Amino acid sequence: MSHPSTSPTVPTRARQRLQWPPTVHGAIAALCAVVIGTACAPDAWRPDSRYDAFLDLVQDRCGNLEVGGRRIGANLIQGPDSYFLDLTSRYFHRQISAENYAGALAGSFASDPGSPAITCILSVPRGTDPMPMPPALLQ
Question: What's the total number of domains in the chain?
């Protein structure tokens, strides 16, 4: 007498994996590279002496002030805090407006956009940028 099997039945045809053509893999890799490359600040891949000079001025004028309990000089510039440096680079190169910079900095470091530290950074002259962003895009 045979006993009924207690193991689950295995389908006769195994589940097949979806195969993408090699061109799709290449397109996905290229798209990822473009997204990663454009998401970085302009000075992320090459030195920028104008931005470095701007950071020196920020350190000299605002270095002892704090953004959300973190000192600009010791913790954010010399630390270094990569988010602060990337965001500040975007502001310096006019990729984001002063309002967006202040809001992003305040939101990330639990501070107020009108805090003395953020106001101090915004008061440091950025100089001229060879390719300033059009005013319509700064909103």
Answer: 1
Enter the pTM of the model. Answer: 0.62
By residue count, the chain amounts to 139
CA 47/CA 139 separation, integer angstroms: 28
pLDDT averages per 10-residue partition of the chain, 139 residues: 56 60 60 47 60 94 94 91 94 94 95 96 83 51
pLDDT for position 29: 58
The CA-based angle 43-68-80, given to 5 degrees, is 35
Q: Kindly state whether residue 3 falls inside one of the protein's structural domains.
A: no
Alpha helices in the chain (DSSP H): 22-38, 49-62, 82-92, 98-108, 116-123
Continuous segment of H or E residues that includes residue 67: strand 66-67
In a domain, 74, yes or no: yes
